[in-house]
């Protein structure tokens, strides 16, 4: 049987599939150890052992999706938002501990391939798969195969800056009026229907420039704004207290918490700005939103209009879809990946 492991910042999940049809045989998840590389390895070993015991047969193919990538030069993990993985030879360590071949790839690449092969993007040439959970990552699938790139960072969208950041200024209204005048002086007639995007804001909690510090060493990365963590942090800045993302969304939908509603509205706008750059550069046939934030139904209704505002096109067709395989799409992609080990 085939098996895939999705190593996330919050949970680690294993799935076992039949090799012919991809039917699910077994699935189980455990909380991910945080800050401890050896505990992470042990957790994966325990999941593999449990799966084989429960299924009564050996895993013949194993793939693992990680929130980072394997450096082609050092064979160690790099770019992981689970920073305790960085610099370690995860793939080689697991091969030794399990005494079998193991394929390791970026979790967003696994997700994109899963949705491109038999998921929401099936039949489309170019699928951009987004994972917005604890962190923020993405993968590009072309004709059902992951585009990894020569540096292994194809699709690393989360560490690009938030486009068109807003800046707090006490004279925001005056500065925006000046910007509107400059815009109108050169605006092409085919873009007059697009609204002005304010560059200056009157509330300090809406300030986006230079942005928040990111573990990659830069400021203002998309991950710090549109991950689930970024969403929760934004609510805390607005309201003065912390809530989990699901509760923030629930309060926003109920309409009884203005801070929650503002947080969700701004989240949709920021996600739209980030995806607009993807559409302008890649123009994918489908964009699939995975991870915990991808479960917010309002995103799918609101984002097409946001992208129409921000993309460099007078008209826009865009397919933004929830994953067919839900939260298990990434781990399914990891299982298919294992066949290449």
Taken in chain order, the helices and strands follow as: EEEHEEEHEHEEEEHEHHHHEHEH
Tell me what portion of residues adopts beta-strand conformation.
Answer: 15-25%
What is the spatial order of strands in the main beta sheet? 3-2-1-4-7
Query: Which structural category do the helix and sheet elements fall into?
Result: alpha/beta
CATH class of the largest domain: Alpha Beta
CATH architecture of the largest domain: 2-Layer Sandwich
Task: Walk me through the structure.
The chain has 2 domains: about 1-120 and about 325-340, ATPase, nucleotide binding domain (Nucleotidyltransferase, domain 5); about 160-165 and about 210-320, ATPase, nucleotide binding domain (Nucleotidyltransferase, domain 5, 2-Layer Sandwich), CATH 3.30.420.40. The protein has about 350 residues and is an alpha/beta fold. The protein contains 10 helices and 14 strands. Helix 3 (about 105-120) packs across helix 10 and helix 7 packs across helix 8.
In short:
This protein is an alpha/beta fold. Helix content is 38%, strand content 18%. The protein has two domains: 132 residues, 2-Layer Sandwich (Nucleotidyltransferase, domain 5), CATH 3.30.420; 122 residues, Nucleotidyltransferase, domain 5 (2-Layer Sandwich), CATH 3.30.420.
Describe the secondary-structure layout.
Layout: E1 2-7, E2 11-17, E3 24-31, H1 37-55, E4 61-66, E5 69-70, E6 77-78, H2 90-98, E7 103-106, H3 107-118, E8 126-132, E9 136-142, E10 145-146, E11 167-168, H4 172-186, E12 200-201, H5 222-226, H6 228-239, H7 245-254, H8 258-281, E13 286-290, H9 298-310, E14 320-321, H10 329-337
Parallel strand pairs: 1-4, 4-7, 8-13, 11-12, 13-14
Antiparallel strand pairs: 1-2, 2-3, 5-6, 8-9, 9-10
Helix pairs in contact: 3-10, 6-8, 7-8, 8-9
């Amino acid at each position: 049987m085939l098996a895939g492991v999705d190593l996330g910042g919050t949970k680690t999940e294993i799935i076992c599939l039949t090799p012919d049809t991809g039917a699910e045989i077994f699935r189980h998840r455990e909380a991910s150890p945080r800050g401890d590389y050896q505990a992470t390895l042990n957790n994966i070993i325990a999941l593999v052992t449990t799966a084989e015991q429960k299924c009564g047969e050996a895993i013949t193919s194993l793939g693992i999706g990680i929130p980072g990538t394997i450096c082609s030069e050092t064979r160690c993990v790099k770019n992981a938002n689970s920073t305790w993985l960085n610099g370690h030879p995860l793939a080689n360590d697991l091969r030794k501990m399990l005494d079998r071949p193991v394929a390791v790839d970026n979790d967003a690449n696994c997700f994109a391939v899963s949705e491109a092969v038999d998921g929401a993007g099936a039949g489309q040439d170019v699928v951009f798969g987004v994972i917005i959970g604890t962190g923020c990552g993405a993968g590009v699938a072309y004709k059902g195969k992951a585009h990894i790139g020569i540096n292994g960072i194809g699709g690393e969208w989360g560490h690009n800056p938030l486009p068109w950041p807003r800046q707090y200024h006490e004279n925001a209204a005056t500065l925006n009026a000046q910007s509107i005048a400059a815009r109108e002086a050169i605006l092409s007639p085919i873009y007059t229907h697009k609204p002005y995007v304010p560059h200056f804001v009157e509330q300090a909690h809406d300030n986006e420039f230079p942005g928040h510090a990111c573990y990659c060493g830069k400021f203002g990365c998309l991950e710090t704004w549109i991950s689930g963590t970024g969403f929760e942090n934004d609510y805390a800045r607005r309201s003065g207290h912390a809530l989990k993302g699901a509760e923030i969304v629930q309060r926003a939908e109920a309409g009884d918490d203005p801070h929650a509603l503002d947080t969700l509205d701004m989240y949709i706008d920021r996600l739209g700005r980030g995806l607009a750059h993807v559409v302008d550069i890649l123009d994918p046939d489908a964009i699939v939103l995975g991870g915990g934030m991808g479960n917010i139904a309002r995103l799918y209704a609101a984002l097409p209009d946001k992208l129409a505002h921000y993309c460099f096109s007078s008209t826009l067709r865009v397919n933004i879809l929830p994953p067919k395989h839900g939260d298990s799409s990434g781990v399914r992609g990891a299982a298919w990946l294992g066949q290449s080990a």
